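To assess whether the prediction recovers the assembly geometry, we first specified each molecular entity separately, as shown.
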Amino acid sequence: MALKLTDYRTSVFVDWCPGCGNFGILSAVQMALVDLQLPGSKVVIFSGIGCAGKLPHFVNAYGIHTLHGRTLPFAIGAKLANPELEVVAVGGDGDGLGIGVGHFVNAGRRNLDMTYLIHDNGVYGLTKGQASPTLRLGLRTKSLPKPNINEGVNPIALALAAGYTFIARSYAYDVRHLKETIKKAIQHRGMALVTIQQPCPTYNDINTKEWYGGEDRVDPATGKPLPRLYKLEETGYDGIVHKPEEPFPKIIAALTKAEEWGDKIPIGVFYQNELVPTYQERISQRIPTYIENPPARQPISDKKGKPTTSIRRMLEELKVTG
Amino acid sequence: MIRDEFVWMAGGAQGSGVDSAANIFARACCYGGLHVYGKREYHSNIKGLHSYFHVRVSSREVGADVDRVDLLCAFDAESVVRHVWEVAPGGGIICDAEVLAVKIFDIPTWPRPFIEELTKTLDEKAIRPETVGDLLNEVRKNNVRIYAVPYMTLLRDIAEEIGEEKLSKLTRMINVITLGASFGLVDYDKKYVEKAIRMIFGEKPKIISINILALSKAYNYAQRKFGDFGFKLETVPTDERRIFLTGVEAVALGKLAGGCRVQTYYPITPAADESEYLEENELFEVEQSAVKQVGGHIVVMQTEDEIAAINMASGAALTGTRAATSTSGPGFSLMVEGLGWAGNNEVPVVVSYYQRGAPSTGLPTRHGQSDLRFALHASHGEFPRIILCSGDIEECFYDAAQAFNYAERYQTPVVHLIDKALANSNKSYRMFNPGLVKIERGQLLTGADVKDKEYKRFEFTESGISPRLPIGTPSAIFWNTGDEHDEFGHIAEEPMTRTRMVEKRMRKLETANKEIPVQERVNFFGDPDASATIVSWGSPKGAVLEAMERLRQEGYKMSFLQVRVPHPLPKEYIAEVLGKAKKKVAVEGNYSAQLAGIIREETGIAMDYFVLKWNGRPMSSDEVYDALKLIMQEKAPKRQVLTHGT
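The predicted structure of the complete assembly is given in tokenized form:
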């Protein structure tokens, strides 16, 4: 029987603030799973700490709500042990680009076949609105005592430098675009990042829904707002690497696009390169049976508890007499 | 010199082949049927600073280092000056003929505290040697023989013989020159040494042949030039199957046998060797399993930091895989939050914790045993954990496997405490018996067990243990969170749920305490009606046992309670033993007698005497013997601090 949207819902009350961008992200995640017909027992959603961290509790799939900034290590460990799992990691911008940024970078280097969604709202919501790593220099969102003294980090540029092989941006209130982007990320063979622009109606009074929608600037010709977001795919931009000689120019193009901010903010796939071997493929080079017989599937003992591992060869190597 | 025992030592700059010399020496002795215990000391440095290796050789099994050296091989001047006083009367020093003229205080690598100590020593002895040669003349008076070998001349001869123009290429063989001279002096059967050289240099035939040539040059030189050393190292032919290994190798093998399939680590001394050994042996054979043809493997992942290491291991453990990480004190400090998460979510993750000199970076390459309290209390809040302490290299093997059984049976993190002395020492043992390793997975469910049922990952049960399901199991779903949670794993802050969930988790410790037999948690040695009882844990075991045996032969009856599982502590048993003990003696490698404190906390029983050491060096059986003897003679202060070691 086909899986329906309701199959991915739980009975847990969704306790985000009214109007929170997380609602859109939650819907998009659930809809993507429906479209891909991935049973919840095959999917594991890992999350960090913060408002975004609660997401797994609202999805009827294995949900592992981990520590602040540590989403990726947990997710990587599970994927490594059981590559059959569909692993999706989620977390906020503070979680992934502040306290967890070391893991963010190193996950790119490894290129495991998994997906990472960053809810990017520019603030630390759950601790009441401090500046997050993506908040730009000089901005003063409403709970900041003083304007932000740090420059904001650009997650797309950072991901390009770190080696992510799928890098996209979407928008929490464009659920359809977000759903399609998440699907592409899940289907991508390698480490996929989707950073999601997400208004925080409670603490970010600058990058609001109205701001993204351009309601502060009206087109004199039509009398309608000029939205800040535009879709890369509608501009003829192609970030996909098809040939071995393409990564460098495509990275440069993606970097150029990643620098756009303010009046024009691109969403869509910035970069994708499936020519890079995944971590699983790299391990398989050394361990040919890794995929067919991964750690989680290996029988380690017989019914009586006798180990299956033979360490005879190693003991022979250490042998000195007899 | 003791007749059935010989202590050989090599000292030199790091990178000059001290380790390989010691390895060859030890193996050559093992091949001849002798027993060996090797102790390695090195600086936190790549090349240039001093390191040394003691190799204690005996016809019987030995489990500790001693203070005495019978034959010192000094690769350089520094090694002569540092160790000259350790050589026992009747012993000898092999050194380079060229270092005799080196002025002692001109040696560039002296740290200031060493110069102060050396000056003090020379003042005490009322001697004023200017050169290394002068110093050696002083020790000659102690009946120590000096064997000045012209290292470079011998190397030049070799270079000529093999047609090598660059002498610098051969200076790496100074270590083998000293080996050859050593074995020549003790007239040991050269074929075993050649076998060891072949083993150490593996598949490098050219290097093997040059080293064997160097060996025999120096061997013959020593025999011709120096004649009788007064001690012949005899082989003891044996049919017994023996292995020779380090603590890190033992832990790695225990993990493999115990079914570990994912190991994560961030490089740190002295733990990293274990992960590297595992990676070298990532593919292995399997027996009696459906995938016999396919074989088995372990995935070893080097992480970006120790935070990632423990959390990745937990992520892997959630899939039902036996997963572990391996670290030392600074790394464990970073793992603390992850340990709490695993405790809260009842994840069976295993941490192999190699203690070293601490706090902070401390003594990165030196011994320490001061992290028991930390392992016991690490992370905020209260949750069960099990701590397992190995006392020797063999225990490292069986405990590394057992750690997973405890972790899975009680669904809780297990910290396997090891220390630098165990990690880097090597020892000959009778072949380990992997048949003694048993795998117990606890209440681990499969999809069939939960089909069409509502699965509660954290179900309230009498034992506190909730049957566990790996993530990814079809037809079930559950949640985990670092927050307090309900039985399904969803966030819950209700007071009643909180009260019950904490109790449920903590009950597992009581269950473990009831189920794990006392024999698995302590070892008791010696006489039940002894006049003193020693309490210790970890690597002092070998030194304590040897010291006790020597004292027994002198008529002092002692017993020894070795605590292997300090948490949950078998307190009734310990209270019973210590309640009857006449003198209670804590022997520990730390300042505050951490185990003694825990025992007092749990049983109310205080120790009468403390023998403690924290100078970064393992306990030698001699110094433990001396300290215990004073106690037995009623001459000891309450607290004795051991300071031996260079």
